[in-house]
Amino acid sequence: IKASSKLVAFNTEQAGKTIKVWQNSNIPLYYLVTDMDFSPFDDSLLATCSVDETVKLWRLCDLAQEQSSSPELTLRPGQGRLELVLFHPTSSGLLAVGTTKSAQIWDTNCQEAPLAVLEQHGDQVQSLGWKLDGSLLASSCKVRTAQPEQDYPDPSLLLILTSIVSHCLTDTSTKGVALVPKLALDVMSCEVVRVLQLTDSCILPISYQVPRKVCHEFHDDLYPDTVGTTPAMSAEEWWKGGNKQVERISLHPDKRPKQKAAPAKQTPDQARDCSTSSSPLSTPSSSAAPSRSPSSTSGLSSGFVPSPSPSQTAKAFQNLMGPTSKFRHIQGTVMHRDTHITNIRGLNLTTPGECDGFCVNRQRVAVPLAISGGQIAVFERSQPGKLPDTALPTIQNSVNVADFAWDPFDTHRLAVAGDDAKIRVWQVPEGGLKETLTEPKIIMQGHTEKIYSITFHPLASGLLVSSSYDLTVRLWNLETGKQVKVLDGHQDQVFGMAWSPDGKLLATVCKDGKVRIYDPRKSTSPVQEGPGPEGHRGARVVWVCDGKYLLVSGFDSRSERGLYLYSASSLSSGAVSSVPVNVSPSTLIPYYDPDTSVVILTGKVSTQTEIFTLHKCTFMRSCHNRSLYGLAFLPKTECNVRDVEVAVGLMLTKTTIEPVAFKVPRVKKEFFQDDVYSDTAVWWEPALTGSAWLSGSNDQHKKISLKPKDMTPVSEAPKEAPVRKYLPSSVYLEEKTDEQKKDELLNAMVAKLGNMDDPLPQESYEGVDEDEWVSECDQNMNV
After folding, report:
1. What biological-process GO terms show up in the record (predicted)?
2. Considering Cα of 639, then 496, then 539, then 322, what sign does the dihedral take?
3. 781: alpha, beta or left? (left if phi > 0; alpha if psi -120 to 50)
4. What is the pLDDT at residue 428?
5. Interior/surface letters 143-174, b for 16+ CB within 10 angstroms, e for the rest
């Protein structure tokens, strides 16, 4: 994708053989396009190169009326496949072209032969770059020779661009990125950078603005003079040794030079169409004519995002470029007190940092108690209310509890890791604990040091993975009670583990500052390894975006909590994005919802919960009036879709367990919100057995719809006619005479007082007959 001040061009999906231009026109090239570039001195001039060994120059103003059938100019370098094309920054009509193993310099006025052929390359030329003054040309190729020193013109700009991924994560892959020229920026709104992101279905403008108290004014300190659009010399002058520079111009709207007339080659009608057509890349102040309305252009239906109209304020423009996630207004609400479990006594508040604090499933909750012998209390979710003050039946683990987890496929089986390097598996009877359990069903031993975390396999039944201070990660088969794999490679304590959504890979984050990915069935060593968070206070890891990325919560070198996003296919490249959160001693525990791409973050002894939407990086905080010691979530079937609940969890405080519902505000709650609820995985049922997975089999969870039978999807709801909220402006602007105003005032007073001819209310009452009256004398006689 490439952009000029008024146009944007990009490859379509037709095998890359067609260039799409914003004005809904195509350039048929018939061969695979390898590169393109706009002229810095003519917004309508586009150069392309393709595998047919030709460079073509296209005049894009002609596309406003019809498709272009032939280029304005064709160059034939004749040295194999062409990979790159780049205009000269100071001279007109000068091109640099990258071929298979050479770079060439062409003068478009001399089409017979290039001005120079640079053949000092040992392999395919991968990039070309002119020095800012146009005196030098740098190139790089596949052969790993000495790297040429790169000249970056604006370090502050590079700093801004490196943070783009932290603010613009989309749910579709990025196909290309283009930087919009400075002359197209909305300087009156303090816009300093605009980038175009090309995805599978749309072009997304990403705007960066510097916050200023005084808006709609030009700030000289933000906008130094920039390079103009008039070439300093011709290609022939440059080739003879000229070194003139392009005149710099001010970005102030009142000081900009007037736009040049259209090229003489165009007809008057074409020139008028080209100069007055609106573009998504031009700012409201630089547009020659008002933008087309959405109904008159095919931009919206084509997946483009149009530019704001001149009447839009800076705030509206920021909202247009800002987060658009349907979950950005999600709210967390504690449910009614009748659903709480209260009067919990003796809660263990000193569990290790790798432990979530407590664990839940659809039927019951397990909570560690600060009682000798590593006791765990189990509460039935179907029996909320106040617990008795007397002693409760518990699970006696014999040693201190390090971590524990419910089997996702068996609501009665609880695995507990202890300080004695053993894993005990307990079976809770139907209906809950009636008496204290002292004998586990299975005891698994293999670690030589204390265990600090355990995690069940998300797809295969009976598989459990554990990490220990002996620096190993071990895979256990609960059916046999024995370990089946020992994973090595860690140099320090393992902070967190997470299985990939397909159950094939295991990710770990370690205190040695590394993030690793294992394929346990193929190797005991990591298949990938990369740098992790710099802090050593703790970390967690989860798989996000269908297993394409890893989200790690940890600490930086200044002990500030943050989120780090890694590509699962290239851990060695480091984090592709990082977002600082806040400063707190507790590790952020992330909970990822694959149906909504929402991450809910909390920490132990925390008074707030962060909600983070991945594809738009939106943070929302929900504060509590009590300290939070743990948060765990229930299956999606526990959500009340009639109240638009997207997640339901249980919150552990010092003495209570309280259900929390996360809701999306909606108006038409009588309809099923099918844009919010996608089919969800039945992760509480195994997809295959542990033995089948160990033998190499793979499978996925089946999915179900959450739509009740008696609800209609909101996408099928009847469309209501728009209701006018206000009277037409003609009603307010109509001039009235004094007599008309007097009549209106009198009519209003009469309407308020009522009509004199109307009967009184008491006239409608029923009276009493004469014979029913009793005289005072009669009453005295009766007495």
Report:
1. actin cytoskeleton organization
2. negative
3. alpha
4. 93
5. eeeeeeeeeeeeeeeeeeeeebbbbbbeeeeb
Contact 244, 232 (CB under 8 A): yes
Q: What is the mean pLDDT of residues 504-528?
A: 93
| Residue 360 and residue 405 in contact, taking contact as beta carbons nearer than 8 Å | no
26-35, 232-241, 255-264, 673-682, range with the lowest pLDDT: 255-264
Task: Note whether 11 and 19 are within 8 A (CB).
Answer: yes
Enumerate helices (H) and strands (E) in the chain, giving the number of each: 8, 55
Confirm if 566 and 515 have CB atoms less than 8 A apart: yes
Those residues whose C-beta lies under 8 Å from the C-beta of residue 186, and which sit 6 or more positions away, are: 207, 283, 284, 285, 314, 317
Bridge partner list, 172: none
Residue 353 clears pLDDT 70, i.e. is over it: yes
Q: How many CB atoms lie within 10 A of CB 186?
A: 21
Nearest alpha carbon to residue 591 among 658, 645, 648: 648
pLDDT digits (tens, 9 = 90+) for 298-322: 332 223 333 333 333 333 323 333 3
Using alpha carbons, list the distances in angstroms from residue 782 to 220, 282, 771, 775: 106, 103, 17, 11
CB half-sphere exposure, 648, CA atoms < 13 A: 18
User: What is the spatial distance between Cα 497 and Cα 499, in angstroms, rounded to a whole number?
Assistant: 7
Structure tokens at 248: 């710099």
Place of tokens 């304590």: 493
CB atoms < 10 A from the CB of 77, how many? 19
Question: Using one digit for the tens of pLDDT, what is the confidence trace for 141-155?
Answer: 765 443 333 333 333
> Residue 6's closest CA among 33, 36, 35, 42?
42
Q: Are 341 and 379 in contact (CB under 8 A)?
A: yes
Q: Read off the amino acid at residue 647.
A: A
Query: Distances from the Cα of 405 to the Cαs of 360, 364, 437, 487, 690, in angstroms?
Result: 8, 12, 17, 21, 17
CB 17 within 8 A of CB 39: no
Output the CA–CA distances (angstroms, integers) from residue 765 to 338, 434, 756, 760, in the order listed.
51, 71, 19, 10
Burial 700-738 (b: 16+ CB within 10 A, else e): ebeeeebeeeebeebeeeeeeeeeeeeeeeeeeeeeeee
Q: What is the 3-state secondary structure (H, E, C) of 390-421?
A: CCCCEEECCCCEEEEEEECCEEEEEEEEECCC
Can you read off the two tokens belonging to residue 42?
A: 């003519």
How many CB atoms within 10 Å of residue 60? 25
Distance CA 630, CA 612 (A): 18
What pLDDT shows up at residue 679?
A: 92
Task: Please provide the size of the chain in residues.
Answer: 783
Name the residue among 589, 677, 665, 666 with its Cα closest to residue 633.
Answer: 589
- 83 closest CA partner among 123, 49, 56: 49
Residue 780: CB partners within 8 Å, gap ≥ 6? none
CA gap 616, 258 in Å, rounded: 39
Helices (H), 535-657: none
**Residue 660 corresponds to which amino acid?**
V
Q: What is the DSSP letter of 731?
A: H
The rounded distance, in Å, linking the Cα atoms of 587 and 537 is 8
What are the angstrom distances between the C-alpha of 417 and each of 450, 457, 462, 518?
A: 9, 16, 16, 22
Please give the Cα distance from 684 to 77 (Å, whole number).
63
Which two structure tokens, joined as six digits, stand for 136? 């030098």
Report whether 222 contacts 192 (CB < 8 A): yes
Using DSSP's 3-state secondary structure scheme, residue 305 falls into: coil
Nearest alpha-carbon partner for 40 in 273, 223, 303, 229: 229
